[in-house]
Amino acid sequence: MSSPFPLLRLPRLVMFEVFKSLSIGEKIQLSLCSKKTLAQFNNARLYSQKVHVHLDMTIERIQVYPEDFKDWFQIGIHIDRKIDNPTIQLFGRRIVPMYKTIKTYWKNLGEGFLCVTRHLLKMFHCEISTGKECWRNDFFQPVISELFEQQVKFKTLTIRLYGSTDENLFWNQISNKFGLVKDLSISSVANLGFSPVFISWPQAITIMNSDWFTLETLWTCPCSFINLENSTLKHMDLNEILRKWMSGGFPNLDLLKIHTLRFRDYREDILGMDWMELSVMVIQTDDGLKKATFKTDHQSIEMSVSPFE
């Protein structure tokens, strides 16, 4: 019988090279062996890979995969009902190892998602994302709030607003943290009952049912990508948007999409042109440094910005 390999006794840089050679699942499972192995992964974090961590609260699991999607591992988050299975312990909780998966059991799901996510943050350079339906879960708000308090960065974050008092409080609590978000998607019911105020902004934003997202709110938006679905903006608002952009406004803008733009007549004037002419036009900023091209459809417009050459 071969003797155990003394991994933790290897020279520091050699041990880190061994860590780098492991698959994501091997790294995670090795980190669960003891607090000492987790500490070594934490020490090696500067050498560790960048991974996406997807919090799928609807089907109660966390998926971990690299940027090239060639590897993956998932961690199930379940309520502990003391099922009689062979287990190991993590943070005093039961774990069931499986192929490409481990199942973990917790007193409540919010505790499980937070604890496992913190564990992964100690091991990898993580970009966090959430599922589209996660907002339906009672523990979504406290989990997201806690991660924001820890300055965790999100690749994608989806928020659904129904207009309740709790949602209003939640929004006010996190709206100063959106600078940590790369891509924010917001969906809401019509007649929300309150107007969400942005204290900070993500890099990209998509808003479904954007009747509350007014022209005044758009003036303050520094995002590079703006997508407004079911907008109540009118053709006269588009005139103002284009003129502001031409005079130096929206300096970060790469792409603007507005759907269901309100028209009374498709011959209404847009910068001296009618709607159909705009789709074949190129306009420039007043300083001549940028240009914009357009795609138009029935009540929809896409404006793409690029350097003028």
UniProtKB/TrEMBL annotation:
InterPro entries: F-box_dom, F-box_Sdz-33. Residues 4-50 form the F-box domain. It holds the Pfam family FBA_2. It comes from the Eukaryota. This is F-box domain-containing protein. It comes from Caenorhabditis remanei.
